[in-house]
Amino acid sequence: MNNLRFLIVLFSLTLHAQLETSHWYFGFGSGIDFSSGTAIEVSDGLLETYEGCSSISDANGNLLFYTDGDDSTFNRNHQPLLNGNNLFGNSSSSQSAIIVPQPGNNRFYYIITVDANDDYPSLIRGLNYSLVDMNLDGGLGGIVSTQKNVNLLPLSSEKVTAVKHSNCIDYWIVTHFYDSFYAFLVTASGISPTPVVSKIGEAIEYQDSTNPNLYYYPCNARGTIKFSPNGKKLAVAHLSNLKSYPNNLLFSPEVYSNNGYSYGTNGILALYDFNSATGELSNEVVLNNQATFYGVEFSTDSKLLYANEDYFDQNNLPISNYGYNDLDLSFEKGVVVQYNTEATNIPNSRFEIPTANFDFSFSTRGILGSRGTLQLALDGKIYHSTVNYRALHTISNPNGVGASCDFKMNSFPMNDYVAYGLPPFLTSYFDGTIVIDANLSVKDLCVGKSYTYSIETESSYSEIEWDFGNGDIISGVDAPNYTYNNAGNYTVKVTLKCGSTSYSFTKNITIHDLPTLSIADLTQCDDSSLDGITTFDLSLANSQIVTNSSDYTFSYFIDENDAINDANPLNNKFENTIAGIQTIVAKVVNKNGCINYIDINLYVNSDRYAVSDLYVCDDNQDGKGIYDLTENQQEIVDIFPASSYNLLYYSSEDDAINKTNEITNLTQFENTESPQTIYVKAESNSNCSGIITFDLLFYPNPQVDLGDDVLKCSGEQTELDAGSGFTRYLWSTGETDSKITVYDEGTYSVTVWDDNDCSVSDEVVFEYRPNPEIQKINIINNSIAEVIATGDAPFLYSLDGENWQESNVFKDLTRGTYAVYVKSSLGCVSLPSEFGILYIPNFISPEYTNNKNDFWNIIGLSAYPNSSVRIYDRYGKLIHEKIIDESDDYLNDTTPIWDGTYLGRAVPSTTYWYIIDITDGRTISGWLVVKNRN
């Protein structure tokens, strides 16, 4: 059957190409080994190249040799290949070399080279080939001296690619120059020197037609060329298409390729149809001419084309001869894009991959955006190399349209910085993929399962043979069904015959055992309805079904038919539909994707138990308390011994049944309602053995009341009484009696405890209110007393402390000494304050024996201690002075002010003058007559 393509197959296994592409060497000592089907970095390579490189392995994936197409070619031992130096390629060429085997012979290989010369483009040596004979140098290989640097084209761009001929035997080598593509046929007899020329597309200028000393090609020549894996399409990236220079650019006499102006000038990205039978190209589609282009690559299914595009401001390009590093001034963006080659309008299918955005991360070293090689690899990924990143970027799913292609920046780290180039290969190495069933990866292959094996290829073939790596061979069947009965690693090989040529593709696969399972039993406690229907957590069966259950995925079904058809899967939280006992089915998938089925038996347990309730004191009287839920645990353990059961605590029966919101702070649990029921689930091997309940309750709160806050007058005391009937008392003073007497202002509190050791507290504030203070007593007309007081008004006034009046004025007072009191609105009484209504006699007769008028006394003056009395004769002489003492009793003449003597002798009878200075501020003066017998 010819051109078979099984489109229903969506995923393939490890290898997507023949093993000739196993080893890559590129950049500065960088390398990757794909021979295992997985990319592994190696560091044994010896190349030092910014761009051109190529490598080749044998059909078993063993390295043969690698080269930069210039002066460095190394054998499999990383030693210089015999006669492998001085090739006519150039390590600064975009694709300096590609290696093509001689058809039908694994001894000879052609190194096809294209030259580059930045400084002297007129000396470019074009397209050449050199023949490698693997029998030379003891089997390490070497270049045949007579077939080294054989010229095929005198001038060429830096582009070269190769693809299989439609006869499945021969190969085409294709390059581009100026306005034509040149296809050279490679047969068992050698390389035909006469190319098939396809003059198509816009001319890419090489030399200025009016000035033969000016060359555009050092920059225009750059970029890469690639065939699609099926050989039907060819894509070309012309870095620039410069046709003239600004007049103010000076050259002598060659054009320097690193000229900033030429480096940022727009190029062409184009797509062509290729006839692998004739070598002709046709149907040019210009995809883009508004950027500079370098790398191109096709998806493994040949439908999608990837390219990198760098955009510059064409009106702001640097014009100095060495303006390379100035390009960042005009750089706009660098991107990786995707085109659909099967679209009706291919240019309009352009998709700019959003995560593939590049900038001048290293602009000081002249690094340009996304510029670099794109290369399909053995693992089915496309790798992208850009200069001075310590990693390659990858497109992990090249067949994915749009963002599903999965582009990742820096996803393959490297030990050293990489460069522009990655090794190109005969594109046909990537045409052919063994696929196994739809939507299955290598991890999905399992013992005892039948899979359909098929080949996806665009190549023609007349015969097909399948070798399953265990001695079983099936011939003549395009898509056989095959079952492995034993686990292990196998290599599946399909051999296709096209004409007289046979070629093969291989896939390494692993067949995994099915999960080994055990029947699981789940016992769940019935809910409050006790009807034999409850909710099971089916995931609890996982650890019974298989050990290390985290390595497996589980799903659950009513019966095996649903499980096999993956129909109506059950939720992990499943309410049984058959009361008492029910059997369902678990579907178990191991990490390799292998599936097995097993029963789960569901049992409903209706047992309920009750233990002692727990009490605490409601200290804050807010209906909340802190409980130690383990206080009654011994009662529970007596029912469900701790050695056999796991006890789980919950706040609701539903939570206990479903094992949700488990209480974990058992010793410091705060209730959320009062009373509150706690549910304890007793489990054995995740099976519910019973539900235990108890309530959280409060003891009655003790009550204590110290009464209202206390107000007292200054100097008074008060008694605080907490009441009787409590087991303990503790006052804020430290006292422990039920009553205390307090004297000082302040806040006093008491805490009392009852028989349940519950406590309650109360407090009272004890404050003094100040007594009124008498500030002044004004005596008016020696018969009226006006009292001036301060304090908590209004006041009452009294002269005896018993009879009170509202007025502060006392009238019609008789002579004598008085004590006045003031009472505040709070009942606080001032200290008594004395005043006197004075009586001042004006006559004494001390020498008469009638015992009358013997002394001069002033009634009422004793109320004013420290007042002074001075007596003068008519000549102004001070003859007596008296300071009033508060103990003097002038009313009874026991302590006279004056006895009528001076210096112990009676004074003459006459008139004397006196001055009285009273301490309330008054001064009284007058005369006194003394009558003696003399």
Topology, element by element:
Layout: E1 23-26, E2 30-33, E3 40-42, E4 54-57, E5 63-67, E6 73-75, E7 97-101, E8 108-114, E9 127-133, H1 136-139, E10 142-143, E11 150-153, E12 161-164, E13 171-177, E14 180-187, E15 190-191, E16 196-199, H2 217-220, E17 225-227, E18 233-238, H3 260-263, E19 268-275, E20 280-288, E21 292-298, E22 304-312, E23 331-340, E24 351-358, E25 374-376, E26 382-384, E27 391-395, E28 407-413, E29 433-436, E30 450-456, E31 463-467, E32 473-475, E33 481-483, E34 488-498, E35 501-511, E36 520-525, E37 535-537, H4 542-545, E38 552-557, H5 560-565, E39 573-575, E40 581-590, E41 595-605, E42 608-610, E43 614-616, E44 626-627, H6 633-639, E45 646-650, H7 653-658, E46 669-670, E47 676-684, E48 687-698, E49 710-713, E50 718-721, E51 728-731, E52 739-742, E53 746-753, E54 759-769, E55 773-780, E56 784-790, E57 796-798, E58 809-810, E59 816-823, E60 833-837, E61 843-844, E62 868-872, E63 878-883, E64 901-902, E65 905-906, E66 910-917, E67 923-930
Parallel strand pairs: 36-41, 42-48, 43-48, 49-54, 61-67
Antiparallel strand pairs: 1-2, 2-3, 4-5, 5-6, 7-8, 8-9, 9-10, 9-11, 12-13, 13-14, 14-15, 14-16, 17-18, 18-19, 19-20, 21-22, 22-23, 23-24, 25-26, 26-27, 27-28, 29-30, 30-33, 31-32, 31-34, 34-35, 37-39, 38-40, 40-41, 44-46, 45-47, 47-48, 50-52, 51-53, 53-54, 55-56, 56-58, 57-59, 59-60, 62-63, ...
